[in-house]
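[Automated response] Your request has been received and processed.

Submitted sequence:
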Amino acid sequence: MKEPNLLQLTPDLYAHFASSLRYSTQALPVNTLLDTLVRPNADTELNPISCVEWQYEPEKAISHVAIGDTQHAGGQWADNPVDASTDIGTLSYAEQLSLPGYSYADHVAKKEMQGQCDFVRPSRTEVAEYLRAYPEAVGIAGAVFAETRVDDVHRTKDGFVIGSLSIKCKHLVLASGTFNVNIPPPTSLAPIAQLNSIETPLLVIGSGFSAADVIISAPSTRRIVHIFKWAPEKRPSPLRGCHHTAYPEYAAVYRQMKIAAVSSNKTRAAKSPMTRRKSTPFFTKRDWDLYEGMPNAEIIDVSLPDNAGTATIIIRLTSGETITREVGGLDYVVGRRGTLNFLSNELRTEILSAPDQVTPVNTQALISGRTLRTKAETSTEVAKHVFIVGSLTGDSLIRHAIGGCVFAAGRITDHIPTDHSPDSTPSPTSSTPRSASLSDSDYTERLELKRTTTGERTNGHADLHLDRRKLTKSVEVAHEENRVWVGSGWWAGGLGPSTT
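Generated structure:
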């Protein structure tokens, strides 16, 4: 390249990705590009040589601050939003969690733990420790402010003002994520969540990773009553993609869910033949006879006797039969969302609305990875001088966060021309009071699950069925098969090259 500067990132560099099998990923093209440059062949090669060299050039720095309300740098990794063990392995392998200038390998090397990086899924605690150490390691600790709440952010004539901190700035980079608000249980179930009778079964509602984390973390001797959505053809659980070797704990939970779903369709419950297969070590750690799965079941009544410490629930199964269970606690883990309520109503409207949108935007609604995805596919500058990165773009993996950050930096430093004309800045408005809380009816309306297809984007989790330790051999086999195919000449109607 004549000008090897990533800040001059333009769409023509990744325009071919959509038609290329080599870059078949559901991440945004700009995120795929940076991930490919930083970790070429990362899914099939151990410790690939990066195509990117990060250089520290303080003379080009732009004054900035990174603000978050968690205890230390790391966002959701610094919190524990779900009642689950922090020792559960991450979905990503260690080498895919590295940030520029100070890799995860550098971090574990400092602790003389080099062997705990290759083909290892670090725990939530270990990732949080890495992210906590990162600012100091790369020299940006002075710009990072933890345990600081941002509120009342509104646009002015020449930029933005953070009202709660009296800070003025020219650009906003939103990295608040889409996982900081747990979807609350319905009003009728909320009292069960306050119970903590560990001698009584735990009620778990949910069908994804958070539900599995709760089940994995529960005492192995505690009975579990698990109610979950089961629609493998329309909306499969993300656990289905977990390879039993690479993700044994998630595969074990999914296996039990599938057994329960198969049994629920039979007049007489039968033990699935899957239980007779060779089990993983994790599978044998729990007494799965204490697990009771109920696909697509519905709780129709709840009663809490005074001072009993337990609740009695009546459940309607898909067969129409009703059963009664006593439970001593509830983990309602049907998903998490984000919020932009720290922005003024006018600024939220500007960010969330589309140019040709007729229906008014519900600016109080919680947001998911789909909320701003359409805008992000055009540009991650979702309003003039306002950028989104991370899961706000719809890509939740750390490995896919760098692209959006580089693009924002390119725009802020004027290396990438903006799509907004100089006179397109909306009229500045004063901030307006925002509601202190959201009603249950608002939550219900906003958080209704949408029907999707099995091919829907899954935030980078679609390939979890692959065991990366076996991928290298698979790629070699595929290359050899391709060589034989090309040499046979059949691809050209028998007129191509011949091996004879």
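Summary generated for your ticket: Residues 468-488 form the longest helix (21 residues). The chain has two domains: 6-181+337-446, 184-334.
If you did not submit this request, please reply to this message.
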